[in-house]
Design brief:
about 160 residues; mainly beta; Methylamine Dehydrogenase, Chain H; 4-stranded antiparallel sheet; 15 strands; about 0% helix
Length: about 160
């Protein structure tokens, strides 16, 4: 028998409750008094993290170490706006873009820059899996690896500087 559990994410704009047994995501108003919407989410076992902007929730959904997808959900009604298949390990909004550390089914790791409104990949940059630190500035993204190697990449193009 598969273990089921509940996850609760208290976000600025609402409370999200995921029930793994029913594969249901429930969004409640910020104080939790009223349900806003309910959404069925298939093919996942858990939600790693959620970030939000004014219009959307971005959910890192997973089923194992490399299977899952990044899902963009409309805050007002719960509709899926877009998704990217693969495992998202980290996502953050910076300078009007969504940045995601992502692994494909072969466990190749990438830093993606994504247009939040439609899920279009602006660029991707292959990274080693021993990435341990990252910092974002308007003029560069600095990636530091356990091996001691560092990379500066352009936030505009994703190219090494």
């Amino acid at each position: 028998m598969e273990k089921t559990y509940s996850q609760i994410f208290e976000m600025e704009s609402g409370i999200l409750h995921y029930d793994s047994g029913k594969s249901i995501l429930l969004c409640k108003e910020p104080k939790g008094e009223k349900n806003r919407w309910v959404k069925k989410i298939s093919d996942i076992d858990y939600i790693d993290t959620i970030v939000e902007d004014l219009r959307r929730y971005y959910l890192s959904c997973g089923s194992d170490e490399v299977q899952g997808y990044l899902l963009s959900v409309n805050k007002a009604n719960g509709s899926t706006e877009w998704f990217i298949p693969g495992k998202a390990y980290f996502q953050m909004l910076y300078d009007d873009y969504l940045y995601v550390i992502f692994a494909d089914e072969r466990k190749n790791f990438y830093l993606l820059k994504v247009e939040p409104s439609n899920g279009t990949k602006v660029w991707h940059h292959r990274i080693d899996e021993d990435l341990c630190e990252y910092s974002f500035r308007q003029d560069r993204i600095l990636l530091t690896f356990r091996s001691g190697m560092t990379e500066k990449i352009s936030p505009i193009s994703g190219d090494i500087m």
